[in-house]
Amino acid sequence: MARTPYIAANWKMNKTIAEASEFIDALLPRIAATQHDVVVCPPFTALHEVVERRRGTAVRVAAQNMHYDESGAFTGEVSAPMLVELDVEAVVLGHSERRQHFGESDEALARKVPAALAAGLEPILCVGESEAARDAGETEEVLERQLQADLSGLEAGQIGGVVIAYEPIWAIGTGRTATPEQAQEVCAFIRDVVRMRGAATEGVRILYGGSVKPGNAAELLALPDVDGALVGGASLDAEEFAAIVNAAG
Ligand code: PEP
Question: pTM of the prediction?
Answer without folding.
Answer: 0.97
